[in-house]
């Protein structure tokens, strides 16, 4: 099964997860960046509109203060007081118009041109912090300054007598916003947003609560750093004043609301990746389960084992079709292999048979030569002996009967020896068979007549009706059947038994089965007994069956042991029928 | 009559020649002997016998070659060959050159005598 790292089932889910993670992260980062940009943009818009709006509001307020101071400076009571130094009560009444009704007025009064106080309301006027000479004759708002931690500014209006500036009406006010205003600011730019007012030269700033000291903010700036924190800023001048009004917000704060978004994105990403990987794993399992089985089966086939085929699926998709095709293919492979194995074993058996036959033929050839020359050499002495016995029995007319009997025995024994030699020569000489049509029944009977059956042997002969004639050399095949019958009779000596001869035919072949009730032939000797010089008899040279088989085979037939047991043996003589030719 | 019952017996086996001649003489034949084909040709020419009994397989000159030579010199001579296992072509050659009879070994004495008597009567 799949156990290596190269397995698709392991790699594919990992790849799917990686690709999903990459995609989700890319889109998440993009979304987060765009959201950040949008948020920052929105914050910027808010910051700018805030400063612009407050610049307009402040301008109106400041102008009112300047106009008020100007009208006070033109009041005849003030002008008279400055000119005469009398009736300070009337002058105070005139000054009282400027406050303290708003609560922001710290101090008011009249200052000489040299900056010293001439008349002070509420509390003593401080010396003029800044009195630019070019503005001495005009009404204006002065620079902001820090007075005990509070941001303050002056409004100054010239007191003129006969077209000449003789003194200034001054009011000092605290630059502070009402809680309602601060609340409005906070609602517009958030808690991290600020609304600052400061001198255009940056020397003093206030957050409308207290003085802050210098800040590096100039008109038109977009960003500045305060306390190591990057802040967006919109600084616009308040017309008619030396002041800038600036709305600011921390850059980080602009994106602070996006933290939640970031976490959401991360969570979504994790869920998508996990779900994607799981889905991928499930899909890949679906796809690869049959593939795993197929792979195992293919590997088994490749290794030469019998494939354990995956069950045919009911799927009709490509995988299902692949499984079916594979099952069909492996079936064919198995068939082909079995066929091949069958062929190989058949051919091997054939080769072994051929080899055996070759060895047998070689042995026979040698034996044939030997037998031929021995037989030939024996012939002359035997012939001479035969001549002598004839001569003696003819020439000796007056011999005792016993001697004549012996002469006759000599003649017969010589004749017997000659017969043996003739048989050997006949058997070993491979003659071309002279094939004719041979009727089976008369053929069997003729050979049975040649055999001398002892009284202990009972013959059971049967020839099936309609047995076709054989096509064979009757002399050669007759020798064979005679030999087989003789062997059968001898195998039952001395006890005797039934000799069964059964002839039958089928499929163009004729069979003559000879069954004895002898001791049987062990199975391992079923082929050996057909080898030359193999014999189990006490007397015999072991040629009979070997020569018999050679002769039958030369006639297109065969001779073999059909069955054998302790109760007897059946030799089957098989020959082609005449109809088959 | 007696001159006509003359026969040459040819075989490289002395015992065979001896026993055959004895049997033939017993039956009134006059015999001459030879050990091989070449000797047979000479003996037949010198003695003028009309009948030859000859083995096929012999040294120097075989029975068939001797037959051819004898027939060339004395075509009227009757030649009987006897053999155990001579090659078929050799025997066919003998037939072409007018062999009187071919007998198969072992030759039964009675059969031999009747064959020779038959030939003598015929020719």
| Helix share, percent of chain B | 40-55%
Mean pLDDT of chain B, as a whole number?
88
What summary fits the major beta sheet of chain B? Answer: 5 strands, parallel
Separate helix tally of chain A = 11
Q: What's the rounded overall pLDDT mean of chain A?
A: 82
For the record, give the distance between the C-alpha atoms at the N and C termini of chain A, rounded to a whole number.
Answer: 61 Å
Rg calc of chain B: 13 Å
The helix fraction of chain A, in percent, is 40-55%
- Chains forming the largest contact: A-B, 19 and 16 residues
Q: Extract low-pLDDT stretches of chain A.
A: none
Computed over alpha carbons, the radius of gyration of chain A is 70 Å
- Give the strand content of chain A: 15-25%
Shape of chain B: globular
Q: What strand line-up does the widest sheet of chain B have?
A: 2-1-3-4-5
Give me the number of helical elements of chain B: 5
Measure the end-to-end span of chain B. Answer: 13 Å
Helix-strand topology string of chain A: HHHEEEEEEHEEEEEEHHHHEHEEHEEHEE
This entry's quaternary arrangement is: heterodimer
Unreliable spans of chain B: none
What does the model show?
The complex is a heterodimer of chains A (581) and B (123). Chain A has 581 residues and is an alpha+beta fold. In chain A, 50% of the residues lie in helices and 21% in strands. In chain A, strands 1, 2, 3, 4, 5 and 6 form a six-stranded antiparallel β-sheet that branches. A six-stranded antiparallel β-sheet of chain A has the order 9-8-7-12-11-10. Chain A has a five-stranded mixed β-sheet with strand order 14-16-17-19-18, covered by helices on one side. In chain A, a hairpin with a 2-residue loop joins strand 16 and strand 17 (509-515). The radius of gyration of chain A is 70 Å and the shape is rod-shaped. Chain B is globular, with a radius of gyration of 13 Å. By secondary structure, chain B is of the alpha/beta class. In chain B, strands 2-1-3-4-5 form a five-stranded parallel β-sheet, with helices on both faces. The longest helix of chain B has 14 residues, at 109-122. Chain A binds chain B through residues 372, 375-376, 379-384, 386-388, 390-391, 394-395, 418, 425, 429, and chain B through 13, 15-16, 19-20, 22-23, 26, 84-85, 105-110.
């Amino acid at each position: 099964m799949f156990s290596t790292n190269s397995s698709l089932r392991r790699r594919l889910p990992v790849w799917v997860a990686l690709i999903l993670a990459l995609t989700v992260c890319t889109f998440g980062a993009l979304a987060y960046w765009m959201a950040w940009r949008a948020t920052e943009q929105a914050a910027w818009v808010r910051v700018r509109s805030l400063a612009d709006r407050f610049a307009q509001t402040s301008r109106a307020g400041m102008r009112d203060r300047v106009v008020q101071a100007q009208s006070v400076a033109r009041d005849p009571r003030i002008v008279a007081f400055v000119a005469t130094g009398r009736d300070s009560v009337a002058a105070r009444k005139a000054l009282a118009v400027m406050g303290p009704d708003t609560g922001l007025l710290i101090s008011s009064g009249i200052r000489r041109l040299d900056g010293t106080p001439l008349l002070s309301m509420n509390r003593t006027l401080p010396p003029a912090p800044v009195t630019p000479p070019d503005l001495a004759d005009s009404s204006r708002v002065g620079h902001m300054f820090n007075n005990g931690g509070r941001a303050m500014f002056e409004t100054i209006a010239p007191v003129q007598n006969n077209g000449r500036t003789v003194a200034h009406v001054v009011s000092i006010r605290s630059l502070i916003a009402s809680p309602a205003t601060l609340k409005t600011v906070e609602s517009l730019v958030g808690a991290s947003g600020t609304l600052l007012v400061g001198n255009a030269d940056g020397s003093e700033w206030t957050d409308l609560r207290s003085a802050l000291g210098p800040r590096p903010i100039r008109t038109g700036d977009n960003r500045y750093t305060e306390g190591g924190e990057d802040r967006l800023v919109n600084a616009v001048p308040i017309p008619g004043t030396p002041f800038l009004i600036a709305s600011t917000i921390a850059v980080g704060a602009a994106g602070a609301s996006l933290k939640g978004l970031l976490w959401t994105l991360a969570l979504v990403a994790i869920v998508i990746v996990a779900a994607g990987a799981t889905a991928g794993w499930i899909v890949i399992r679906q796809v690869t389960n049959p593939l795993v089985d197929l792979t195992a089966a293919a590997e088994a086939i490749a290794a030469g084992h019998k494939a354990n085929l995956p069950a045919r699926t009911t799927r009709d998709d490509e995988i299902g079709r692949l499984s079916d095709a594979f099952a069909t293919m492996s079936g064919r492979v198995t068939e082909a292999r079995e066929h091949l194995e069958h062929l190989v074993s058949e051919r091997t058996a054939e080769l072994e048979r051929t080899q055996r036959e070759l060895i047998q033929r070689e042995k026979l050839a040698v034996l044939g030569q030997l037998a031929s020359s021995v037989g030939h050499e024996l012939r002359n002495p035997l012939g001479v002996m035969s001549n002598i016995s004839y001569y003696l029995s003819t020439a000796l007319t007056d011999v005792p009967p016993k001697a004549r009997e012996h002469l006759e025995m000599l003649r017969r024994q010589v004749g017997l020896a000659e017969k043996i030699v003739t048989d050997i020569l006949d058997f070993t000489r491979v003659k071309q068979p002279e094939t004719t049509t041979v009727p089976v029944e008369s053929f069997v009977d003729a050979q049975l007549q040649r055999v001398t059956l002892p009284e202990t042997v009972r013959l059971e002969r049967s020839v099936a009706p309609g047995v076709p004639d054989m096509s064979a050399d009757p002399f050669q095949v007759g020798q064979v059947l005679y030999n087989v019958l003789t062997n059968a009779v001898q195998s039952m000596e001395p006890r005797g038994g039934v000799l069964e001869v059964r002839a039958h035919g089928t499929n163009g072949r004729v069979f003559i089965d000879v069954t004895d009730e002898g001791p049987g032939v062990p199975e391992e000797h079923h082929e050996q007994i057909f080898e030359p010089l193999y014999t189990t008899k006490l007397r015999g040279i072991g040629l009979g069956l070997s020569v018999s088989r050679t002769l039958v085979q030369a006639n297109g037939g065969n001779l073999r042991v059909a069955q054998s047991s302790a109760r007897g043996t059946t030799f089957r003589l098989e020959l082609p029928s005449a109809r088959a030719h | 009559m007696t001159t006509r019952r003359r026969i040459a017996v040819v075989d490289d086996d002395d015992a065979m020649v001896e026993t055959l001649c004895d049997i033939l003489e017993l039956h009134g034949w006059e015999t001459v002997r030879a050990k091989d084909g070449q000797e047979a040709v000479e003996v037949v020419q010198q003695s003028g016998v009309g009948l030859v009994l000859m083995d096929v397989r012999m040294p120097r000159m075989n029975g068939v070659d001797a037959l051819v030579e004898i027939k060339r010199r004395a075509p009227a001579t009757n030649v009987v060959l006897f053999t155990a296992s001579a090659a078929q072509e050799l025997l066919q050659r003998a037939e072409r050159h007018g062999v009187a009879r071919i007998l198969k070994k072992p030759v039964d004495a009675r059969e031999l005598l009747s064959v020779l008597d038959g030939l003598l009567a015929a020719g």
